[in-house]
Prior knowledge:
About 20% of the residues lie in helices and about 30% in strands. The chain folds into two domains: about 230 residues, Spore Coat Polysaccharide Biosynthesis Protein SpsA, Chain A (Alpha-Beta Complex), CATH 3.90.550.10; about 150 residues, Hexapeptide repeat proteins (UDP N-Acetylglucosamine Acyltransferase, domain 1, 3 Solenoid). It has about 425 residues and is of the alpha/beta class. Uridine-diphosphate-N-acetylglucosamine binds next to helix 3 and strand 12.
Amino acid sequence: MIIDGEEKYVMSVIMAAGKGTRMKSNKSKLVHKIYDKELVKRVVELAKEVGTDDIVTVVGHLREQVKEVLGNDVKYVYQEELLGTGHAVMQAKKYLEGKKGKVIILYGDVPIIRKETLENLIIKSFKNKEYATLLTAIYENPTGYGRIIRDEGGNIKAIVEEKDANMFEKEIKEINSGIYCFDIEELLSALEELKPNNVQGEYYLTDVIKIMNDKGLKTGAVIVEDNTEILGVNDRAQLELLTRVLRMRINAEHMKKGVTIEDANSTYIHDNVKIGVDTVIHPNTTIKEGVIIGSDCEIGPNAYIREGCIIGNDVKIGNCVEIKKTIIGNRTKVPHFIYLGDAQVGEDCNIGCGTITCNYDGKNKNKTIIGNRAFIGSNVNLVAPVTIGDDTLIAAGSTITDDVPSGKMGIARQRQINKDRKK
Ligand code: UD1
Ligand code: CA
């Protein structure tokens, strides 16, 4: 990582060995998803975005599932018995040894920390020459968390776990998030000194703070501004809560950049979506990861914009429209009850109600290409692969299996005959 113009080594260790019993699941807790993305994958992506040089994941329970999700992107160490958070980090010893720099400790089930928060933590740790920098928070109800013990001067002395805390310590509202930035060499040396002499009989990573302070090594903390960032997932209700927090955060960011969202509660914009200014998003709209939408568009309601879509400016995507891997040109209207998959639509087109691309033949996905200024009548089936030229008209109710050249009208339906009605 580059810190203040200097190359520094920073490793991420992600704790992912826990059981996740309260999820009541056959799957590892860490492979449950928020907005289509596994919790542990979110944490790995975060570690990458921050720019850490190596990522080591401590796996245990159902580790094959975690490995399947993360693949060869990270290094793995195995914690056979869960003997505590300090013991978990000790498993990464072979990767930490011989390295000079910092290590940040993250959790596979704490997936919505902001990149900026981690950057702050790392930068402060380097700048202030701290051997341990903790990410802490102020909680009105701190029950269950480790408490931060500071001296009169405000310097951090230790972390005391809830179960080991006395009545005075329990009053402390500053809690340990469990996320830290450590100096690698001093962490390794402190880990050697951990003893499981506490109520839970575990090797507590938190004891490292006192060990460092006793050696006269400087420690510090960053207090997180937004407490929702350090929320973890232990059960399905928390999974829903974090999804909601992320939804509101993403929606707020788009609104800040000039997008109108009519109802943030029912607008589901996944990660890394780009939307231009003055675009209006109507309720019950889902927009999947990576979609790009221009400015002055109108999207929704009940629109489902799936992966791989690129939408131009001044486009209307209306009620009950689903589009996937589709490019839509400027000023085109896709107003209602339409499915477009693997399609490329030009500028100034109008796609009639009930139109669908028949993109899947049971084996392959095929492309539909529509030129500029095409007028597609209602209830048209476009059987892909098929190309519709510029300035074309497709008659309502047509099932189009052959290309329609530019300037032509395509009609593919039986003529109507009116017969006598049987009495
Ligand atoms: C820990 C902190 C506590 C902090 C809290 C924040 C310690 C001793 N305490 O407590 O100060 O306020 O997090 O949530 O660190 N894990 C392993 N292997 C183990 C033990 C734990 O991988 O042997 C993983 C767990 O799966 C979990 C995380 O580490 O994801 C936290 O472990 P847990 O034992 O639940 O710590 P807390 O009691 O929550
Ligand atoms: Ca916990």
